[in-house]
Amino acid sequence: MAKTCRFEHPQDATGTGASNGRLVHASLILDRIIAWSTEIPAALLVVAEFCLLLTNVTYRYGLRDPLTWGDELASLLFVWLSMLGCVIALRRGEHMRLTTIISKLSPRAKQRTEALANTLVVLFMALLIVPAWEYTVDEWAIMTPALQIPHAIRVGALTCGFTLMFAVALSRLISSASSANIALCGLLVLGVSGGLYLFQVQLVDMGSAHLFLFFVIGVAIIVFPRANHDGIWTIHARLLVNRH
Fold it and tell me: How far apart are CA 129 and CA 139, in angstroms?
């Protein structure tokens, strides 16, 4: 089922931490810095957003004199609040995820699964940072209609959020996974990514058929073997018994 599931926090990692104590210590310091630099600004943005929206409603419907810059500023603040919220949720392990499979795994398999999940987040955020930065640079010359400030101030929230989520995932990976699991997950991700890159032309030519490839074949491979692990092995054992 899908539910909110808390990842192990870096401060709680013990025996599964990376062998390099300095890296783990540095990741803990980075985690604290990210906590202070995101949670306090997010709280202030919530208060500012509430006050701004209340002021906008008062001027628009009470005084019949709407603020031309009010909606624009509220939209800008909301983008930053959304990205900071994503970072905070990732750090606290409060994003939604499927736990049907992982709840059936052994503790060792769970550690490897968590390491793989963090590795995927690190890779995905790393791929998004550069395009987000290029988009921010391109938007610097564009001014907003009402406030007359660079539009890059708004879209810069994407670059900031992706960078912070990259740091959070990397910190969690270093502090909660062994070196062997990190290397194994890295090789696995690189291998799959390399295969997708080599066959990208064929995947594009498939058109909508790649949806079938992902949702039917991919989900079946990921979900059903583990969800029905005991049943599958029971059937396999019976077939072997009947054969002999």
Answer: 15
